Fold each of these.
Amino acid sequence: MSLERKGDAVDTIIEQWNRERPDLDVSPMAPIGRLKRCAALMDRRLDEAFTAFDISFWEFDVLATLRRSGAPYCLAPTALFSTLMITSGTMTHRLQRLEARGLVERKANPDDARSKLVQLTDSGLALIERAVEAHVANEWRILEPLEAADLRALEESLVKLLAVLEPSGD
């Protein structure tokens, strides 16, 4: 399927800046503006799948992180919040909410009596198993209009951009 190029909101913004500030090369605004707009629109489309399971994106993210860690689906809170790139305070709040819903439980850490581990409950595991299947199907629907070659090129470009943006670990 070939997608015909139509003007979009970013084109309008670029045209306005070119008119108002012809001395300024605003071309970087085009890809960055489109990435930001795609991210916002993508979030809406992804949330549609999560609402069917009465979970938010962040709840899905925590449950999915525990699930993909492998059996027994248990991690230290520090491993969770560093993987999810959130603060420990935010993680504590989120875990409290998930625990209140019966989706995770905190267990004693056999390696460190001062800390707890977070584990999926049976209910949490059952929920994430269904939700991740719906999530992947939704992602396939979102990307379906793109040609395979375009998807590969997009992926390659995003890998390069991410390498530029992510901290190098120095």
Amino acid sequence: MKKICSVLAICAFMSGCATVNPYTGEAQTSKAVWGTAIGAATGAATGALVSNNHGAGALVGGLAGAALGGGVGYYMDTQEAELRAELASTGVSVIRDGDNIRLVMPGNITFQTDSADINAGFYATLNSVAKVLNKYDNSTVMVMGFTDNTGSAQYNQTLSQNRAAAVAAYLQGQGVKSSRFEIMGMGSSNPIADNSTAAGRQQNRRVEIKIIPNK
């Protein structure tokens, strides 16, 4: 009975932890909390099995499991929250994908048409990205450029590569270590909208930054 109560207490504590999405204003359970809860439950069960005092074993095991389960998730949760706060109303989308964070930067706010020169008005946004990347430096920063399907494949490949390189170079100029970067030109591959419409092509012209935690 003590074992069950210990596990329930841990789970009840975790269920009370939530964050607020700054875009929607809605409460949401963070990735870290889920990882911590799973770690807690697993640790509690393991602790109960290996301990003669089942109640104490469940509690100690649960706390150890919570620490392990919440590590990477918590690190990325706090980084995600700061990115959302910094990038609110900039036009940059912050997307969580498991333990990774993806920043989608529309081409119409980052570059002029057919150019790899960053718009001066976008510098402040990139400064905000660099600020968070420098604070949370235990990650790989993958910068990918994408185009629509107009023009030749070779032209699009070169343009997307140059745009990704320009964004990476700017971030490095703001102190983000060059050793953290992977830079890729994706051309017109992986469209996120219909290339048969002007609105769709505009969405496909973008730069994405994928932040991958080092484990």
Amino acid sequence: MSERRLHHADSAAFRHAMRSLSSGVAIVACGDGESRAGCTVTALTSLSLTPPTLIVCLARTSSTLAGFRQAGAFSVNLLSARHEALAQRFSGRGGLHGARRFDGADWTTLATGAPILCDAVAAFDCLIEEVIERHSHAIVLGAVVSLIEGADEPALAHWRGEFSASR
């Protein structure tokens, strides 16, 4: 049997093609006080219902990932269409970093102490189960220890580089 050589597709073409996949938008956050960190993510999915477990993918260079590792816990806050400005802020647009990104929104905590957006569509409070580093990103497995369900409103979606209300 001949040995196969792995050849990856062109990264730019891959990125462009993946823009066709619509996804939900969330803010992941960790820490407390001035050590809070967070970012906007679209690479998020459930792994298991039993036990409840989420997967979040973050760049290995992300300061939020460093905060996750330090805190050992994080939140996942699903955003509604009215949270577009907050999604922009946590994506880094506007130049705010660290705890300053949390200004202007109401936050609380649940079991782990991670920041929970009070008016999120839903929010999950997670303990880090495992961090798997692959290529440019880390795959974070979060054991959901508590959650809140918010208002029944259209979720914020991301498609072709833009935010919009899901239908």
